[in-house]
Amino acid sequence: MKEKISEIFKHPIWSNVIATFIVLGITVGYNLTISIFKDTDFITEFLKFWNYKIKLWIIVFLILALILVYRFLSRNKIKEDNFKYEDETLELDRKLFEKIRTEIMDESVALNLKDNSFSSYPFDIRDLDFIHNFTEEHKNPNFEFLNPKLETIKEDLIESVELLQKSLSKNIFGTDIKHPEKTFIGIPKEWEYERIEAARNNIENAEKLVFTDYEKLIKTGRRILKI
Predict the structure, then answer these.
(1) Reported pTM
(2) How far apart, in whole angstroms, are the C-alpha atoms of residue 138 and residue 154?
(3) What is the pLDDT of residues 211-226, one digit of tens each?
């Protein structure tokens, strides 16, 4: 869902259509609010809004600001599109990609996230090792893709992991389950039903976000790195 929405906003036609409706909605909402508070009719306020005199220097300033923002965003996009690997840089990114998908977040971690294991039932505390590993590796300056596109996706994934960590820290505690080798944690069963459901929804949303970003990194990485 997140990727589909992102594609719509990046589409050259639909993005302009959405932007037009957003501006129109803000304009209509503003004038409707003004007409209510001033006890006037909407048409009068709408016409006053469009006939409002704006100083020339303000218009020039806004145009320059929009140009600068556009150039900044375009430069980043061009940088991503024009990136080309050399043999050495390709090998470095391949090693980092393999480390992420085999050592930090392997298939078992991805499956737990996809199945919403952390929000559904008690689980072994060691299942969260990937969060610690990710946050620790992120401190390492070498934990970086040279490809700007992969690095952007990786940073999104790290942000999602950090959000999941915050959600778990507020809603997950020790349980009374006894096991000789595992330490089980989960949402406290003694909480009220509404609190349990709120905790489950909060964790589940965070799980979905991490899995979506992880899946995007894996699919994009396999295409770019050809592994």
Answers:
(1) 0.66
(2) 10
(3) 999 999 999 999 999 9
